[in-house]
């Protein structure tokens, strides 16, 4: 009887433990599901506060920059309803350059939130962010980023240095491969790599927060650039700080590059409630 009672006690404990485990797992799943919309909503509310006094050329305070950057660092693909097996991360059987897909989450005159989805080998060509502060969070995958800032006249006029052909001198800010998870990158109106190019080493997704967003009517159009080695214009040589490989001449393209294909797609992740 004592043995039977012991076995019975064990069975009861096992059943209770199993039920408790199921309950805990269910609570964890519920908590995870509940956290998905909260994360997107918190991102929106943080952006609303950070860019409340924003505008062209106005940089948020260092504390606000760090607050938004730190929050973006916590985001996972699941928080925005993304996974790497979604169709716009594939480029099998496609002719020409792989298209980039943009998922629009939110936009207002102060800031915008969206996600660029890049299949492997997709490229977002070199372009600028006039008067903007931009936060870029690599959600998953690997991406090569090359970015520049303008070199200005050392005499203090703050004018760009131009070649005889009209190209402007820029210095490399970043030339590296980023692999998720990694720290959110931030660029500013005149520093931090305001002109950048993204190349997908693997399929990847980048969540971008722009403050303020592009606006052609307010002289914040997106400009694309051709890139030339510093030695391309030997007659325009100047005294450089550092190696010549750290510099390039950037020439404005007259229009959007022909090989850039960006498609809009419906964002199906948690929605923002603007109230």
TrEMBL record:
Gene Ontology process terms (BP): detection of hypoxia
Sequence similarity: Belongs to the cysteine dioxygenase family.
Keywords assigned by UniProt, alphabetized: Iron, Metal-binding, Oxidoreductase
EC class of the enzyme, as a word: oxidoreductase
An annotated Gene Ontology molecular function: metal ion binding
Catalysed reaction, written as an equation: L-cysteine + O2 = 3-sulfino-L-alanine + H(+)
Enzyme Commission number(s): 1.13.11.20
Cofactor(s) required, per the database record: Fe(2+)
Protein's UniProt name: cysteine dioxygenase
Superkingdom to which the source organism belongs: Eukaryota
Record's keyword annotation contains Amino-acid biosynthesis: no
InterPro entries: PCO/ADO, RmlC-like_jellyroll, RmlC_Cupin_sf
Transmembrane region(s): none
């Amino acid at each position: 009887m004592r043995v039977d009672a012991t076995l019975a006690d064990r069975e009861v404990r096992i059943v209770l433990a199993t039920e408790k485990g199921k309950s805990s797992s269910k609570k964890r799943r519920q908590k995870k599901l509940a956290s998905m919309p909260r994360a997107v909503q918190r991102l929106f509310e943080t952006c609303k506060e950070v860019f409340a006094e924003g505008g062209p050329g106005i940089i948020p305070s260092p504390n606000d920059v760090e607050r938004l950057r730190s929050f973006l660092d916590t985001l996972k693909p699941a928080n925005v309803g993304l996974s790497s097996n979604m169709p716009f991360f594939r480029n099998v059987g496609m002719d020409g350059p792989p298209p980039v897909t943009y998922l629009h989450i939110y936009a207002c005159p102060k800031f915008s939130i969206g996600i660029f989805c890049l299949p492997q080998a997709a490229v977002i060509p070199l372009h600028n962010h006039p008067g903007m502060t931009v936060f870029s969070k690599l959600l998953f995958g690997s991406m090569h980023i090359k970015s520049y800032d303008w070199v200005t006249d050392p005499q203090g006029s703050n004018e760009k240095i131009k070649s005889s052909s009209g190209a402007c001198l820029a210095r490399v800010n970043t030339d590296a491969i980023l692999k998720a998870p990694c720290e959110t990158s931030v660029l500013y109106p005149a520093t931090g790599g305001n002109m950048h190019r993204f190349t997908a080493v693997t399929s990847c997704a980048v969540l971008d927060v722009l403050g303020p967003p592009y606006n052609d009517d307010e002289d914040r159009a997106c400009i694309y650039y051709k890139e030339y080695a510093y030695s391309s214009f030997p007659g325009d040589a100047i005294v450089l700080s550092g190696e010549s490989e750290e510099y390039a001449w950037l020439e404005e393209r007259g229009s959007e590059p022909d090989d850039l294909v960006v498609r809009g797609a419906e964002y199906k992740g948690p929605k923002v409630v603007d109230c």
